[in-house]
Structure formats: structure tokens, C-alpha cells
Amino acid sequence: MNGIYSLKNKIRSLVLATIVGCPLALPAQETPGNPFVSPFDFPLLLSGNFGELRANHFHGGVDFKTQGVVGKPIRCIADGYISRVTVTPGGYGQAVYITHDNGLTSVYGHLHQFMTEVGKVVEAYQYENETFAVDLKFGPEQFPLKQGEVFALAGNEGYSFGPHLHMEIRKTDTGEYIDPLQFYTGRIKDTTAPRATHVILYPQAGKGVVAGSSQKKIVPLNAPGTPVEAWGKIAAGIKAYDYMDGTSNSYGVRSVTLYVDSVEVFRSTVDGFLPDENRMINAWTDYEEYATRSSWFMRSWILPGNTWRMLQADEDGGVVTINEERPYVFRYVLEDLYGNRRTYRFTVQGKEQAIEPLQRGNHYLKWNQGNVIQQPGMELVIPKGMLYDDVDLNCKVIADSLDISFDYQLHDRPVPLHAGCPLVIGVRNYPVTDMSKYYVVRKHKGRKASAGGYFEEGFMHTNIRELGTYSVAIDTIAPRIVPLNKPQWKTGNIQFKIRDAETGIKVYKVYIDGQFALFKFSSKNARLSHVHPGRMKKGVPHRMEVVITDYCGNVAREEYQF
Hints:
Blueprint: H1 2-20, E1 46-48, E2 53-54, E3 57-58, E4 62-65, E5 73-75, E6 80-87, E7 94-100, E8 104-109, E9 111-114, H2 116-129, E10 134-137, E11 144-145, E12 150-154, E13 164-171, E14 177-178, E15 195-210, E16 217-220, E17 228-243, E18 250-251, E19 255-260, E20 263-269, E21 272-273, H3 281-284, H4 287-293, E22 298-299, E23 311-313, E24 320-322, E25 327-335, E26 341-350, E27 363-365, E28 371-375, E29 378-382, E30 391-393, E31 396-398, E32 407-409, E33 415-426, E34 438-444, E35 447-450, E36 454-456, E37 459-467, E38 469-474, E39 480-484, E40 495-499, E41 505-512, E42 515-516, E43 519-522, E44 527-530, E45 543-550, E46 555-561
Parallel strand pairs: 17-26
Antiparallel strand pairs: 1-4, 2-3, 4-13, 5-12, 6-7, 6-10, 6-11, 7-8, 8-13, 9-12, 13-14, 14-21, 15-16, 15-17, 17-18, 17-22, 17-24, 19-20, 19-25, 20-23, 25-26, 27-30, 28-29, 29-33, 31-32, 32-38, 33-37, 34-35, 34-38, 36-37, 39-40, 40-44, 41-42, 41-45, 43-44, 45-46
């Protein structure tokens, strides 16, 4: 059997090399002991590194630049087999998972094209099931790969805003994400150290004060001035990015260490995380600063509910006690994978002053136990493990007898929850009789966003992952379909814009001459595009039907002749 597979692999390599026009010669092996070769035949350059701060998650891999174009051949970095293939409108777009013989799995996202055999399997599934989205798993015997073999072309699919290859390395048994760059440091030069712009000081509620206030204070690092005065228990955070040679991109900082009076109080090392640790980014960073001002600050102290293993702190969790009237010297050391370092120093002047007593709101949530918030017509259950810290809740009911429901302010500041927590809101008025048209809505800064949900016995049920203001709304408006480039339709280049302002698009179908036609949907630009124009007969009139359904069951249906 091995001989048969070897022959098949040689044939596959020859065929694919002919298709994509890439050389058959395999790249040289990496340095001894390195299990992986480069995925490309050209010099590697990063547009994104491992562990970069992203909304609700860490960047789980590295982004390799592809010289500004799509279609670059991607080589298998080690012997293995294609174990999974996915296709989604957003996220990775088209992705390939390769399970290797060394206990690791590599993942490749935003692909332009699969290898011929895989592409045929994916296409057959899409047409058989009348769906663009795909998630297929394979065994070792179906698509084996040898190190250096081309298996896909790099692209710009999914939630990608420029041609590149997103590549991850995961431990096969646990799914743990590890830094791929550690295998390619010899191929990428970096002599540039990380840089910081601001620090932030956090007086602990009821225990500390900074600059005469119990509120946090942001301090620029590049503007020397009078040291900030503080007293009691305070903590710090820093806004910083890494940089690399030959590019203007900014990256996440691999290691941050904080010393106070030459004693280490905190250290973070972003070199791995498990899938269920991904949302711990909301405990490590200042979630409020990101949610309100799109600004990333990394805490240099560990919230009690933060279990991310990459953080280390002293016995006080990184919280510093200012109890002497003297200068306290804070020193940050930022370091990247290459050992490039940069140090920042600033002084906090101990100054005895009154500490504002802790003022508790009408609800106080404990991070280490389950919590229930109840208001007239509303209940939110927060199981144990969903909060990273205690929350002094400012809860309020905004009542209007004409509204579908009351507005429930569950807190006046954004607070993340580690996973979905069940929220129930009572419906007071029924503008429409069809209960499927009701949904839970999140209100924030004058905007509304759907939180989904379903109706049952007078109440809307959903799960939320952030404290904020919630209510009930209705969606009776069908999605909007906007045809594009009609003069080119006869060539097969058919495109639409599809939008739904209320609850979002759930399902779309396109039929040409009564037959399912595969269209891909890009969530980044809300565009539908015909995938296989070659399947459409040329030189004859066509009838096309487009059917779009939103999450409240509203259907838009349009027919076109061309």
C-alpha cells in the first residue's frame, strides 16, 4: 500500500505543479532538529504574529505576507495528511488542517484554492447539500501529504483584508495553540524591540487612590512630568506593540515583565493557549478600554477569575502596596521571541491621602460563585466561572408602557462574561402576532445589535456574553438584495450585495434555470459571487432566483432574466 500511496503522491505533485506553475523541486530542510520547512518558496515576512490582541480572542497563529497577490503555492511543512477542510463566509474562509506525524497539526486559512482532489470533494458536498459552508473531516488514507508537497494556493478569503496566509500550529491531542514563529526564526530577521506608548494605573476599589481619585489614570510614557501620586493598593497596565525589520506592521508583545523597586511583580509570556482560554484575553486586557475606545491595555496584575497559564505574579497577584511617602520606581521590560528588549521606567510617588470607601450598587456579583440578577420581567443567570472579578453592578430598569419590553441596564459599563449566560426578558406588548419576529437586542452608544433568542410563554430567551443594556425588538423587514454588474451576467460573473440591518442573514440560495448555483458569500463586504460560471450554459437566456432568509424568518425573493 505504501508504494501505491507514494506513486499517487508523485502523480498528485506533478499534476498540481503543472496547474499552478510552481517548481517541483522541494525547498531545503530547515536547521537540524526543526520538524518544519517553509510553506513558501520565497522569503518569509509577517503581517501578524502569534498572540496578537483581537476582539474576544488571541491571534492563534502567524500571518505570512504573500507579496501582495493571491495564488502563491503553499507547501506541506511536514509529512502528514489533510484531516479537515472548512469553508465559511467569514473567519478563515477556506481552510485546511494537516495532521502531522510529530503530534502537531498545522492549519492554513484564507485559502484561494484547494488541491484538485480536495476541491472536487468540497464542490460535490456543496452542490449535494446546496450550501456554501463546509466542514469535512478525513482519515489518514484519503489525502496523505509529503513534506514539501503543494496542497493549496494562498488567498484572501473569509475575514481577510489583504492577501496573506494565516498559519497555526496546534498540539493534535489537546488543540493547544503554540507559536509557529519559533520554527522559522532562522528565516525571518528581527532586530527591532517592542515599544510602549502609555501606562495605566488602577487604584483598587476601596483600597487605593491614584492622583486623588478612585478612577484609573492613563499616563503617557513619552512625556516626562511630575510623578503620579498614589496611596494604598494599586495595579498597572501597559499599551505596547512589537515591531519587526523590513515592515511597518505592528505586532503583539510576546513578554511583558513589571518590576517595582527592582522586584518582579508580574510577567506575561504569550507562547500558547488552549481553546477554552481564548476569551481570557478579556480578563488580561482592559476590556472597558477596548470596548469604549478601541485601545488595548495589557494588565500587569491577575484578576482572580483569570486562569490563563501564561501569566505569573507575586503573592499579591501583581497588585502593589504604596504605604510609604517615597518614590516607587516601576520598570517595564518588553521582549520579543528574538530577545530584543526595551525598558521603560516611571515613578509613582507615595503620598498619604484619603481612600474613598467602597460604594456598592444595588447588586454585587462575586466572581467565585453563581449569581442571579432579577428585575421585574427579567432574569439573568451567571454561573460560577463566568466572571473574572467581582462586579459592583449598577442595574436599572427603563420603563415605557408603549415599548415591547422594558429596557434593562444590567450595568453602566461593559463587562465581559467568559461564555454565554442565559437571559430572559418578558414581552409586554405585541405589535405583531408572529412570535418568530421577536428578538433580544443589545443597545450600545445609540446603536442596536441582535442578541438572537426565541419566544416561549411570554418571554424571550437568549444567551449573552457581555453585561450591558438589553431589550426586545421585532424584525419584520426582509433582507435587501442589490444586483451588481448586470452587463456581465451572461459571462457568468454574477454578483449581488445582500444585507439585513436587524438580525442578519441566516440562509441564502441561488438557482439558475431551476438548478442550484453555488455562490460564495463574503461577510467582510456582504457580497454574493458566482463560484462556477462554467456550469452555466452559454448563449441562451437564463432565469435566476435569489432567496435570502434572515434570523427572524423574513424572506427576500427576487427573480431575474438575462
